[in-house]
Automatic annotation (TrEMBL):
Residues annotated as domain DNA2/NAM7 helicase helicase: 873-1111
Residue ranges constituting the DNA2/NAM7 helicase-like C-terminal domain according to the UniProt record: 1168-1362
Keywords assigned: Hydrolase
Native source species: Fragilariopsis cylindrus CCMP1102
Domain of life: Eukaryota
One Pfam family matching this protein: AAA_12
MF (Gene Ontology): helicase activity; hydrolase activity; mRNA binding
Domain RNA helicase aquarius N-terminal: 68-434
The keyword Hydrolase is annotated on this UniProt entry: yes
Domain RNA helicase aquarius beta-barrel: 538-724
Region (Disordered): 1-42
Protein name per UniProt: p-loop containing nucleoside triphosphate hydrolase protein
GO-annotated cellular components: catalytic step 2 spliceosome
Position of the signal peptide: none
Length: 1434
């Protein structure tokens, strides 16, 4: 196929129309878009009938940019990729319109990515919609790639940019290694074929290293490689070898003569950015980097780029971004990893490798140029192998007088250049030698040098902390790392996470600082008139902020400790500053007095003399500058960029310096320490308003400031201190945790066992960590503390009865106590409940595919409620996997009992391995408290073994006498110890060993844990032995034999008659007293509360619960204590000292929303919202899906059930009265209500990105009022929306409609919330407002849709513009079900709550059905009902 013309030269009149391709939505989605008929057939949907030619015309050739962008958005939302373009590409391989279809493919994919619509199982690249492995699909993929990569015009930078972006998106989004699209792309960007394009001599050097590589290369051919062309284009642009390249080079080198063109087109810059982004992503994958790294080194890519753009960062944004990206590429090219076997290199390995290179240079110099290069020959390796900033000047000095010809031959002999052509400049050859020798900073050393607190340079650098709203910069590549499915090593993984968390937290900090600085309103005023009549100006503050205080005295550096051995930064930098709270009100003063140890503060230097006084840039100018991808309705208005997004804010408000610090101590002006809990304050000092804060400065930042000169003077200029909310101020602990995982006792390689490490990195077989894999079976055979494959698993009280056991393993042979369970009428089932141990084995003979389930019953403990849940087979499988060693992933759709499964695993592990520890970690306090409460409610885990860490413990509802914090558990243990010692005292008195006179003055026991143990040995054990002897001599061995005469503790138990069985039970009771006392003995030896708490958490606790945030706070202390994790339940990383981890059980739902990332750029571009749980599933790690839901009506479940495999219903949601009854007053149990423009307006944005819809808000509130008026309890109704602006609007309207003086005064729904914030909660009835009327917005993320429609149990009523959401391809499976019902609200008048009407009953009185035409009609109805209510009240 000949190369196509550039887009600008295409004439739609000359284009020949292809055969029609219709957007035909099937009636039922079978998960395969290829079910759509051949596109050459007659269309089935005339409304969407369009051919490729017309689609290309309106989306590519239309001269009206606004209309063209609107068409792209419209057709992409409607699924043009899956329904029009892909079928055409698949069935019309020889069509003349094929290039147009390929162009549309990359165009729509680019827009799809910008919109952030990718979600697991919902995009073109995950294979859900299209079976890529089919032969005709593979052929289409190859044709598409060939057309795009080799048959398009290379000078069409706009098209080439889209192609590069298409490749990058496909590369990053496809997690299946066998995906033909991914394999096809890799064949053009990496692989052994790439080496055909290397210099022969350098290639031969690589082939000598491996005979296998030589054979593989011999079988390959010199085919076209797109990556070779792409790299050449980038180098031509950077080195100035093209028209635009000369201008790019001019931008980088201001000494050059300016070229004719005065500007580089935006598409040229974007092509460079996208190409470098793709290069970074290729080098970040272990599967693609090996051949690519060697090829790039062979052509000197890194050196040539460094010479082209320089080392100093440029001011122009576009060139600065190129430099950032090239720096990242350079660090990846020299990353410490052996690409051949993916083995991570240690710091010693890296040093040894570079020292051997220096030795090679010295030997070569000694052999060929002994007289000319003596300085090189006898140089220390530290000089030759220093970083490029130091070794380049040394090399330049060392080679002074050494001719260019000799230098060329030296590098040729060292295989650093391909030939002896003397066209290489001397500068280039020195750079090549430096690149070969220089040791780059090791990743762990880089982390140490990163300051933990952001500075003013980082905070307002929009190239590293982009705007929060991705629609501001959709076409721009960001200088941010990406979280991907695979990582090169744990160093790579931690580095990326550290940088992203650091920058994302800096964005939140920037918003808080901007808010406080704006409120204090700095001004410049005359301070005094000196003797020489000079005027002194001073910065003062005209306003106030509760989060900021002016410094009463300048900050002073108190102590700078020297660096520790082997480190370069100071060990600690301590400073002090003073604030005066005299002018503060009581509330603000109290807040500042609560600032204490370990809180983070920010010190700011404001200079009003440096304030520019300029306003923020206009929003439309900002959009224009950053290349917005679509028109904004706000662009025509005089709106300005929000201050928190404005990079010029420091100049506008005189922000000179920002530094962070951590509070070490707070004292008053009298020297009394205020930050020490429990320390009394003298009455005369309680009125003191001055607070002196002793703080620890960031040592890395202080060292950097000192190198620039005058850190102490710089810090004296601080005149404002700003605090943040505690919940948002945990970033430092998280960063310290990531840094602590890099090395030392808490390093991640010591924390995680070998069987888990490669799976988490994404480089191993994803099934290798499953309990059924050969790897884990071998691990179990050689590891203490786990079940062997042939051992029994202790399921405890998982099963309620024999029927439950049999049904849980349906299709397998189930044997209980040697008897096969058949389930027929002749078998008799035990009436008493038992605990069970189960062993699984493979069947034999004809039943080899079956498992044999051998169960052994054990006595059920007395006084224990036990498990009340009749677990489904999938839940039982999850419990089985959780009890086994290895990695367990459990996917729990809404309402399927994730919490109950987690609780059962925890309880079973506790009873199976009572000496091992289980750690429960969740993202939220609510989820953690839910699990912890259910664990307590079981009653079979002694509460002395339960600990709940973190502030969320105060929300626990418990009957315990003490809370479950460390201090509360210590207090409980001390009280329990006293109670048990009282029992020992009574026991002693009953035996006549001691009397009441020996008690303490307050009547307390005279025993301690130590003396109680002596008492046990001397008297209890002796009496027990005597009892056993007497009963044996009397030949008393039956349980019913009376042993009253021999039993020594009749008086203690206050009984006169006892049998042998009862006597042994009493002995067990006494033994348990002394066993429990032995655990409390350390509390007598440890006197301080902190020592006791540390002992409890490290030695006594068996079930420890905390949130992810608290885990980061507590990690360093846990490492110090030697806290060892045995089992672990979480969706985050482990926090242990050594690799004792035996089981990792992760429960979640990747089809629901991940934790919120406030800055959308970090989530959409860098995938910061990617959870480990979702990533492991994306990699193909086996998981167990819970397949029965018990929350919602079956018809409501169907709205989101299509996202899960075979999601069914529990019997009670099908048969119980609650779910069979209809919703009173409603004709339908769920419905979409179409809301047209209200008062001529749909969606609106009172401020940028603050979406509201007045019509929907009024409609929702009116329906809420109607429901309350007919009897619905308000707490059974929740109102949800997808935007914060709408939530605020609904809250305001309800405050008016249900405010004082109204019939519904004080009535409020249970919640008015956003969908994101309501995740994890539920209610009987949900009123949902989707707000948008022009585009779908962020509901295109199917995960948000799943959360939105799965919160309701009995009724869901959605208010939206149906035509907008109904045409969205990602939402069609849900919206299609709504289409079966009318889009106008149907009410049944005269019906009240509750109602006995069944859902499937026909309405006999048709007149009672009332169709609500619009919100005004419903408003009138509600108004009349309220008037009737008031009349009745009167």
């Amino acid at each position: 196929m000949p190369a196509q013309r550039r887009r600008s030269t295409l004439d739609p009149k000359d284009e020949r129309a292809s055969k029609k391709a219709a957007l035909a939505v099937p009636e039922k989605n079978d998960g395969n878009s290829d079910a759509v008929q051949n596109t050459t057939s007659t269309t089935r949907n005339k409304k969407h009938n369009i051919d490729i030619h017309e689609l290309y015309k309106i989306c590519v050739l239309d001269d009206d940019k606004s209309r063209r962008l609107w068409n792209i958005q419209k057709w992409e939302e409607q699924g043009a990729i899956e329904e029009i373009v892909w079928p055409f590409l698949k069935h019309n391989l020889d069509s003349k319109e094929y290039f147009h279809a390929c162009y549309l493919m990359v165009l729509f994919v680019s827009h799809h990515f910008v919109e952030g619509a990718f979600a697991e199982g919902s995009s073109f690249f995950d294979g859900t919609h299209i079976n890529m492995n089919e032969d005709d699909n593979v052929a289409a993929i190859n044709k598409i790639l060939t057309t795009l990569l080799y048959k398009t015009e290379q000078t069409d930078f706009d098209l080439q940019t889209r192609i590069v972006h298409f490749l990058d998106v496909a590369l990053c989004r496809s997690g299946n290694r066998e995906d033909p699209l991914l394999k096809g792309i890799l064949s053009h960007v990496s692989g052994i074929n790439l080496w055909h394009w290397m210099p022969d001599r350098l290639r031969e050097l690589e082939l000598k290293k491996s005979a296998g590589l030589r054979r593989k290369f011999a079988s390959s051919t010199r085919d076209k490689m797109w990556i070779v062309t792409n790299v050449k284009m980038m180098l031509d642009l950077l080195e100035g070898n093209t028209e635009f390249g000369a201008l790019v080079k001019f931008k980088a080198d201001e000494t050059m003569e300016a070229p004719k063109s005065d500007s580089v087109p935006a598409e040229v810059w974007l092509f460079l950015h996208r190409s470098l982004e793709l290069m970074i992503d290729l080098l970040s994958l272990a599967s693609t980097r090996f051949f690519l790294v060697i090829y790039l080194d062979s052509i000197g890519f890194s050196v040539r780029c460094r010479l082209a753009v320089g080392n100093e960062y440029a001011i122009p944004d576009n060139l600065r971004l190129v430099q950032f990206l090239l720096t990242k590429i350079n660090s990846l090219l020299v990353f410490p990893i052996q690409d051949a076997n993916h083995k991570s290199l240690s710091k010693i390995d890296m040093l040894s490798m570079h020292h051997s290179r220096a030795t090679t240079l010295q030997k070569m110099a000694y052999r060929h140029y002994p007289e000319d290069l003596q300085q090189v020959i006898y140089a220390g390796v530290g000089l030759l192998c220093g970083q490029s900033s130091t070794n380049i000047p040394y090399l330049e000095r060392s080679f002074v007088g050494f001719s260019d010809t000799n230098l060329t031959h030296l590098l040729y002999r060292m295989r650093l250049i391909p030939d002896t052509d003397e066209t290489h400049s001397r500068k280039y050859m020195i750079q090549v030698l430096s690149y070969y020798l220089a040791i780059t900073p090791y990743p762990t050393d880089q982390l140490k040098l990163y300051p933990l607190y952001p500075t003013e340079e980082v905070l307002w650098d929009l190239s590293v902390i982009p705007s929060s709203n991705s629609q501001l910069r959709p076409t721009q590549v960001l200088a941010l790392p990406k979280l991907s499915a695979q990582y090169l090593s744990f160093q790579d993984y931690l580095l990326r996470n550290f940088e992203l968390v650091r920058l994302e937290s800096a964005y939140d900090i920037r918003s808080d600082l901007v808010d406080a600085i704006k409120r204090v309103r700095p001004v410049l005023r005359q301070s005094s008139l000196e003797d020489d009549e000079t005027i002194t100006l001073k910065t003062e503050f005209n306003g106030w902020s509760r989060m900021a205080m002016e410094l009463a005295e300048p900050l002073r550096i108190i102590e700078v400790r020297p660096p520790k051995l082997g480190e370069t930064t100071s060990a600690q930098v301590t400073a002090e500053f003073t604030v005066d709270l005299e002018k503060c009100g009581a509330g603000i003063r109290k807040e500042w007095e609560e600032v204490g140890e370990f809180d983070n503060l920010f010190l700011v230097s404001l200079d009003a003399s440096q304030m520019s006084g300029a306003p923020a840039p206009l929003l439309k100018d900002y959009h224009l500058k950053h290349g917005a991808h679509k028109m904004w309705d706000t662009d025509n208005k005089e709106r300005r960029v929000p201050d928190e997004e404005d990079g010029t804010f420091p100049q506008r408000f005189g922000v000179m310096v920002v530094r962070g610090c951590m509070v070490m101590q707070v004292r008053n002006e009298h020297g009394t320490i205020l930050s020490e809990p429990g320390l009394p304050i003298p009455d005369r000092q309680k009125g003191s308003t001055k607070k002196i804060f002793r703080v620890a400065m960031d040592t890395a930042q202080y060292s950097s400031d000192s190198k620039l000169g005058g850190a102490s003077e710089l810090y004296k200029r601080f005149n404002l201190v700003i605090r943040r909310q505690g919940r948002e101020n945990n970033f430092k602990s998280i960063l310290e945790t990531i840094r602590g995982l890099t090395e030392g006792a808490g390093s991640i390689e010591r924390v995680l066992p070998k069987w888990l490490q490669s799976v988490l990195l994404g480089t191993a077989d994803p099934k290798s960590a499953s309990y059924e894999s050969d790897t884990m079976k071998t691990y179990a055979l050689h590891t203490v503390g786990v079940n062997k494959p042939t051992d029994y698993l202790d399921f405890g009280d998982t099963f309620l009865d024999e029927t439950h056991l049999r049904n849980s393993f349906d299709g397998n042979d189930v044997i209980l106590d040697g008897n096969k369970l058949t389930g027929d009428s002749t078998s008799k089932e035990k009436k008493t409940r038992s605990n069970l141990k189960i062993r699984f084995s493979q069947g034999s003979g004809n039943d080899s595919e079956k498992h044999v389930v051998e169960a052994v019953s054990l006595p059920f403990p007395k006084g224990v409620a036990g498990n009340p849940i009749r677990f489904t087979p999938s839940q039982v499988e999850a419990v089985k996997s959780g009890l086994s060693p290895g990695l367990t992933l459990v996917v729990g759709p809404p309402g399927t009992g994730k919490t109950d499964v987690a609780v059962q695993i925890i309880a079973s592990l506790y009873h199976s391995y009572p000496t091992q520890r289980t750690v429960i970690i969740t993202h939220s306090n609510a989820a953690l408290n839910d699990i912890f409460t259910k664990v307590m409610a079981r009653g079979d885990i002694d509460e002395r073994y339960l600990v709940r860490l973190g502030a969320g413990e105060r929300d626990l509802e418990t009957d315990s006498t003490h809370d479950f914090t460390k201090i509360g558990r210590v207090a409980y243990s001390i009280q329990r110890r006293g109670d048990l010692l009282e029992q020992v005292q009574c026991l002693s008195e009953s035996l006549g060993i001691s009397g009441k006179t020996q008690r303490g003055a307050d009547g307390s026991s005279s025993y301690s844990c130590e003396t109680a143990d002596y008492f046990r040995k001397l008297y209890i054990e002796r009496n027990k032995s005597k009892f056993e002897s007497e009963t044996k001599m009397a030949d008393l061995s039956l349980d019913d034999d009376v042993v009253s005469e021999s039993f020594p503790f009749l008086k203690y138990f206050k009984i006169d008659h006892v049998t042998l069985k009862e006597a042994r039970e009493h002995f067990d009771t006494i033994d348990n007293i002394f066993f429990e006392l032995a655990e409390y003995r350390p509390f007598e030896l440890l006197r301080s509360q902190r020592q006791r708490a540390d002992y409890l958490i490290n030695k006594q606790a068996r079930v420890v619960a905390m949130t992810c945030t608290h885990a980061a706070f507590a990690r360093s202390n846990l490492i110090r204590l030697g806290f060892e994790i045995r089992q672990y339940r979480s969706s985050d990383e482990s926090v242990s000292r050594r690799s004792r981890l035996k089981r990792l059980c992760m429960l979640g739902d990747h089809n629901q929303l991940p934790p919120v990332v406030k800055n959308a750029s970090f989530s959409k571009y860098s995938n910061l919202d990617q959870s480990m749980f979702a990533r492991l599933i994306h990699l193909g790690v086996p998981y167990i899906q819970l397949d029965k839901q018990g929350r919602a009506r079956p018809e409501i479940k169907d709205l989101y059930g299509w996202r899960y495999k075979n999601l069914g219903n529990l019997s009670h949601v099908v048969n119980s009265k609650e779910f069979l009854r209809a919703n009173p007053g409603f004709l339908h149990n769920f419905q979409i209500i179409n809301v047209p423009d209200f008062e001529g307006k749909g969606e609106s944005t009172p401020s940028p990105y603050y979406y509201q819809n007045l019509g929907e808000a009024e409609y929702v509130v009116a329906l809420f009022q109607f429901m309350v008026l007919i009897g619905y309890p308000p707490d059974k109704i929740s109102i949800l929306t997808t935007y914060n602006g709408q939530r605020g609007l609904i809250t305001d309207i309800i405050s008016q409609r249900c405010g004082p003086g109204t019939p519904l005064a004080g009535v409020r729904p249970k919640a008015i919330s956003t969908v994101d914030q309501y995740q994890g909660q539920q209610n009987d009835f949900i009123l949902l407002s989707l707000v948008r009327t022009k585009t779908v917005g962020h509901l295109r993320d199917v995960r948000r849709l799943v959360v939105a429609v799965s919160r309701a149990r009995l009724g869901l009523y959605v208010f939206c513009r149906q035509e907008v959401f109904g045409r969205c391809h990602e939402l069609k499976n849900t919206m299609h079900q709504f289409e079966n019902k009318p889009n106008k609200l149907n009410l049944i008048l005269g019906e009240t709550y509750p109602s006995e009407r069944k859902s499937n009953n026909k309405i006999e009185n048709k007149e009672s059905v009332f169709k609500v035409e619009d919100v005004s009609v419903l408003g009138t109805l509600v108004h009349n009902m309220q008037e009737d209510l008031m009349v009745q009240g009167n």
